[in-house]
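quick q for whoever's on today - can somebody do inverse folding on this one?? i tried earlier but teh output was garbage lol. tokens:
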């Protein structure tokens, strides 16, 4: 794991985290699915990172390993693609496995890595999505999506992130993409095509026949995650078509081509002004949220790769095949 100074890109430290027990042989997913596909997360004190050798580790800001835990068993499909998420004083990792009997979600104590709780998911097939935590009636729900690239009765599951209690589940398809929440609805799909589902998250038990508000047929692969901004839901799919729906009704508003965008794997982010960043280190687009596909900017760094952008203090950080890039206004603050 490496750390670079945000102000000028200078290398601060480079620490080898001892690899875990999984020696991978399947690299069909290319540069986006190697040993470091998952995105790190930090609470400002430690950095938590998952590696596809089946290891979860915590680092301090000087590059020292605070703790390291091997994830066993490790029958992940192709790679470990789900990123760790923070909740309270725990770090949660979703392990949706190729062998369903190995599937589980685990909450680790963020201070020492000890298991706080674990919920086994023996009916859950493989997936690579990252959990999303939302608030419904002032209570947290953690949304998990995985179904092994086929329809299952519980492709979307909602758990209490405090203890792993199962709250409700919904029929559908799930694999690579995380769900999106907006206008009181949760939208999820497989990321490979198939059916997208919008469901009201206020139910309990099996809500497949009671709380689904609309469905749509996906056209083309979309390994990135959808995003909901204001009244609208946005989805980028191969070969670069941006679809927009009314989040509340599922009515398609538009489908427009973002010509020659470098990847549809990188998930979009949005700023408070409703600027949607479909950003990578190759050809990127900035689109204004709303009922029209208004393109604000097109940029090409010529170093295309799949990772999603990171944002901090008005700057975007992009990882290419050759370089790391910082995009933003000239920075004159304290070095980071």
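ok took a stab at it. sequence:
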């Amino acid at each position: 794991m490496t750390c670079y100074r945000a102000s000028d890109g200078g290398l601060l430290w480079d620490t080898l985290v001892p690899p875990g027990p999984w020696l991978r042989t399947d690299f069909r997913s290319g540069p986006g699915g190697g040993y470091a596909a998952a995105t790190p997360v930090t609470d400002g004190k430690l950095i938590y990172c998952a590696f596809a050798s089946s290891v979860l580790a915590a680092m301090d800001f000087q590059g020292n390993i605070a703790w390291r835990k091997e994830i066993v068993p490790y029958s992940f499909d192709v790679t470990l693609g789900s990123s760790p998420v923070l909740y309270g004083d725990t770090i949660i990792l979703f392990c949706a496995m190729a062998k369903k009997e190995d599937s589980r979600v685990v909450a680790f104590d963020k201070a020492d890595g000890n298991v706080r709780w674990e919920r086994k998911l023996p009916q859950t097939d493989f997936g690579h999505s990252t959990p999303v935590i939302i608030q419904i009636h002032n209570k947290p729900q953690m949304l998990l999506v995985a179904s092994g690239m086929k329809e299952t009765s519980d492709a979307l599951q909602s758990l209490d992130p405090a203890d792993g209690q199962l709250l409700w589940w919904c029929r559908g398809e799930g694999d690579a993409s995380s769900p999106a929440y907006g206008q009181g609805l949760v939208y999820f799909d497989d990321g490979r095509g198939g059916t997208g589902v919008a469901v009201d998250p206020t139910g309990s038990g099996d809500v497949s026949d009671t709380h689904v508000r609309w469905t749509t047929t996906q056209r083309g692969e979309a390994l990135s995650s959808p995003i909901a901004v204001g009244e609208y839901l946005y989805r980028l799919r191969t070969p670069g078509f941006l679809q927009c729906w009314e989040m509340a009704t599922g009515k398609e508003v538009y489908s427009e081509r973002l010509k020659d965008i470098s990847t549809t794997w990188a998930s979009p982010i949005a700023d408070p002004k409703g600027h949607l960043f479909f950003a990578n280190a190759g050809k990127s687009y900035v689109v204004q949220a709303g009922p029209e596909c208004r393109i604000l900017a097109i940029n090409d760094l010529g170093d295309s790769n799949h990772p999603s952008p990171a944002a901090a203090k008005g700057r975007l950080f992009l990882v290419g095949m050759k370089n790391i890039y910082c995009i933003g206004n000239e920075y004159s603050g304290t070095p980071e």
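fwiw The mean pLDDT is 94. also The longest strand covers residues 151-159. so keep that in mind when u check it
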